[in-house]
Amino acid sequence: MEIKKPRLSFWQIFNMNVGFLGIQYSFGLQQTAINPIFLYLGAPEEMLPILNIAGPVTGLLVQPIIGAMSDKTWSNRWGRRKPYFLIGALLGSLCLFAFPHSPVLWFAVGLLWILDAGNNMAMEPYRAFVGDKLPEKQLSLGFQMQSLFVGAGILLANGSIVLFQYLFGGDSVEVAGTIPQWLYYSFYIGAFLSLTTILWSVFKTPEIPPSKEELADINAIKALPLKKRISQPFAEIAEAIKQMPKFMWKIGAVYLFQWYALFIYWQFTTPLFKLTLGYSTSEAASQAAKMSLTYNIVTMVVALALVPLTLRFGGKKVYALSLVGTAIALFTIPFISDPMLVLVPMVLFGIGWAAMMGIPYTMVSKIVPQDRRGVYMGILNMMIVIPMFIQTLTFGPIYKYILGGSAVNAMLFAGVFFIIAAFLAFRLNEKKTIVNN
Question: Which locations, inside or outside the cell, does it occupy (predicted)?
């Protein structure tokens, strides 16, 4: 039975997405601050990819399982998706507080595994949450609003790194095996925002109760023996993959190259600026944060502007052209030696990031059934983490033996992958193939 969803106001959609701010602040720290911490604690550059394997592995395991579980959850008090992103946010908050106190490399790596598990547990149901609440005509606004908060969260994370490095890090002397104190404060802010922004959305946004048919299905699963209840999410994932629309396989091909390239960018901006600008690790980390700050400001500005563009020209055209722009940015960055001019390509990167964080989710949300939205959003996020997993295993040797251990070559390699992703995005067929309920 189809549940008629009421049209929400702009501020209702805003409130339901506030929690994404804290989640993305945490991801912003992962993009910019985690790899410098690994370098501070003595990790060689060629080990950075494999040290980041926590993200793809936890995403691969956590997101689809949590998505399938949240599809079959209902609590009159807490709802369907909220329990999961609330627990995930609490776990992430505790890890962010502990992270800058890591005494040795293995401790920081272990914390990254727990932090990523918490972030993935919070993020996946949030994607489904938006799809649950909004009628189809408002899906584009809902997911681009999430894109805006992606930009805002990462902007605040990187802005705090730049600010605290400027205020407290200028005269500090780097000590091998020690994380500088100026970096602590960004993590403390993240620990606070991770939990409080989720609580805002939890208390401001009620969930839509399931239909009688959905509730009967949920209660039937609750009545199963424990062993079958544990295996149920895995069976649900396998069945969903078997029935997955062809469009999602095509998105997976785009994501293979897009996310492989993004992981290269995040891992090697700090080493790049040590090479091209002659910076210390702290200075290079601050410059990488400025890059992220710039592109996320652009993301915030253009995220909602992409809504009418996608409605007029189609999502795949806007998406594909944005990937071309991102490639141009990566081809340009290694050859600019001025710390201010090197921020200019981030305009193109920011437009691309806004499109990547909104358009594919809008496309997929329109073609998957309502009662399986959680598991399909989890599978879509599997398509993000699988390329990341491949990158963490393969790029270290590529970087060392094929690219000559050069961060410049790494950035150009990523640019080529964005061009391939853009070509594949132009081949996406946006025709609706599955009608929701």
Answer: Membrane
